[in-house]
Design a protein that fits this description.
Distance between the termini: 52 Å
Largest sheet: 6 strands, mixed
Number of domains: 1
Radius of gyration: 18 Å
CATH class: Alpha Beta
Strand content: 25-35%
CATH topology: Nitrilase/N-carbamoyl-D-aminoacid amidohydrolase
Strand order of the largest sheet: 5-4-3-2-1-16
Number of helices: 6
CATH superfamily: Carbon-nitrogen hydrolase
Order of helices and strands: EHEHHEEEEEEEHEHEEEEEEH
Length: 277
């Protein structure tokens, strides 16, 4: 299949999973009514809880997870493909996993990806983030088969590691998802240029659903869920509002872009030329 109508849900997640399920489910139904065949949600869509102790207490194991169960049921009821951008999966009393789930129209999980790169940074406004204190990083990239070809799953801070996207593209990914909860500071500085760069470098569609607005403990996320074509053109941008964006993807553009600039086949191992020090 060479054409796909895709949607990004842009939401403002709360600490209460039940509230988030209700709000996001309504937006998913709206996107379905607008003809979306594959619908994506942001990172930490089920619960945005900045307090570590509360996050550990509220999180659930994958087999018992209320958000995963409800969204699987919704996917089946609506007969849609659904990417849960990520939810917090309890691994132990001290660690969670930040994990994406790709669900088919039968409500089956066909791929899962655990965020590899932990957001351990201190940004300009003095905010300090230590994702690794609560979350255990994943160890494997994720490629999944869909009716529209292979897709790659990544999450938020992964976007700053181009080699991951290069490897996904070389393995055949035509669409790469980057569900996010970008901070307002880093989003203002880097969001659009990073998103377009990943699309242009790899000749693929980038689809990135994002969190927006002010959350618990006055945490601010940037919004601007975005859909970009393989030439770097922005097909849709959600700006700051809660809601949905939709775009029609012509997957033939992937081969067109990669034939025009076949850089995926021109890579070299430059490290071999480094002098010994």
């Amino acid at each position: 299949m060479s054409n796909l109508r895709v949607a990004c849900i842009q939401t403002n997640s709360k600490p209460d999973p039940n509230i988030n399920i209700e709000e996001v489910s309504s937006l998913i139904c709206e996107a379905k009514s607008d003809g979306a065949e594959l619908i994506t949600t942001p990172e930490v869509v089920g619960m945005l809880e900045p307090n570590r102790e509360k996050a550990l207490d509220k999180a659930q194991a994958e087999n018992d997870h209320i958000v995963l169960r409800e969204f699987r049921n919704l996917s089946k009821d609506l007969s849609i493909w659904l990417l849960i951008g990520s939810i917090s999966i309890k691994l132990s009393d001290s660690k969670l996993a930040n994990r994406s789930f790709l669900i088919n129209p039968g409500g089956q999980v066909i791929a899962r990806y655990t965020k590899i790169h932990m957001f351990d940074v201190e940004v300009n406004d003095g905010s300090i983030y230590r994702e690794s204190a609560t979350y255990q990083p994943g160890t494997s990239a994720c490629l999944a088969k869909t009716p529209w070809g292979l897709v790659g799953l990544t999450i938020c801070y992964d976007i700053r590691f181009p080699a991951l996207y290069r490897d996904l593209a070389k393995a055949g990914a035509r669409i790469i998802f980057i569900p996010s909860a970008f901070t307002e500071v880093t989003g203002e500085a880097h969001w659009h240029v990073l998103q377009r760069a990943r699309a242009i470098e790899n000749g693929c569609f980038i689809v990135s659903a994002a969190q927006t607005g002010i959350h618990e403990q006055k945490r601010k996320t940037f919004g601007h869920s975005i859909i970009i074509d393989p030439w770097g053109n922005v097909l849709a941008d959600a700006n700051k509002d809660v809601g949905i964006i939709i775009a029609d993807l012509d997957l033939k553009l992937v081969n067109e872009a990669r034939n025009k600039i076949p850089s995926l086949s021109h890579d070299r191992d430059y490290s071999k030329s480094f002098p010994a020090f």
